[in-house]
């Protein structure tokens, strides 16, 4: 298998060292990541379907959630399918063009999600802290501006950083000690001084990570203050539970990304980098629909209605025969 791969490898191809390099746990990791991947696709796909088809979910919050689900489906699909197929085929290479495309899509999608999560926290803030002005502050026009702004920010990051990352001369081995073409791992192969580029990337990360994360923290701090003064004990308990679950997922996402892109190189180790990347590239796309939506009564009600329609259709079809 290895010799075949070597014969088919171009001099411009990169080789992933990947997640499955430990034979004693490689099968277990493959099964776990496969389950996470298909769960993420199914959960996000169900969310998009329910939000599009159920009129009760035609609200600004669910409109934003449907786009988050779309980004998550695209996001995990740029990384995981190739990793799983390569494992099954005994391969670990990616072409220069493939690596460039993966790098661009990854940066664009993760950037869009960074901004969208921050702006969704603002939506939650308006819902709880300023409900009387919600229709004005979260109008359809504002929602589309949030979506457009998120995609613009992510695309700008992708178009700015991808050409610079991939134009460096790379060392002959071209072995990426990672499971996908993430910028810090690719830059370790660069045969030129990358200090200026790393400074630019750091500034981009401050804009794309710290600012949205600060908006999230400020929004939820205000929400929790408002919730604390609620007269209803049951409502207060429910709001605290919802906010805490949201904050756990958001902190996991932003925190892992901050570790990867903002921590000095001296604190990084390849194995740790892979683990942190798994948190925000593989786990988060699965957790987002489960935490944000499928635990919500409106969504579970819409799901029951949809399942009822399917059963009704099957019953009618059965009676016809």
Automatic annotation (TrEMBL):
Origin: domain of life: Eukaryota
CDD domains per UniProt: 7tmA_OR2T-like
Main location: membrane
GO molecular function: G protein-coupled receptor activity; olfactory receptor activity
InterPro entries assigned: GPCR_Rhodpsn (IPR000276), GPCR_Rhodpsn_7TM (IPR017452), Olfact_rcpt (IPR000725)
Cell membrane is among the record's keywords: yes
This protein's GO CC annotations: plasma membrane
Keywords of this entry: Cell membrane, G-protein coupled receptor, Membrane, Olfaction, Receptor, Sensory transduction, Transducer, Transmembrane, Transmembrane helix
A Pfam family matched in the record: 7tm_4
Swiss-Prot/TrEMBL GO biological process terms: detection of chemical stimulus involved in sensory perception of smell
Cellular location(s): Cell membrane
Transmembrane segments: 25-50, 62-84, 104-122, 142-164, 199-218, 239-263, 275-294
Domain G-protein coupled receptors family 1 profile: 43-292
Membrane topology designation: Multi-pass membrane protein
Family under the similarity heading: Belongs to the G-protein coupled receptor 1 family.
Annotated function: Putative odorant or sperm cell receptor.
Name assigned to this protein: Olfactory receptor family 2 subfamily T member 1C
Organism expressing this protein natively: Equus caballus (Horse)
Gene name, Swiss-Prot/TrEMBL: OR2T1C
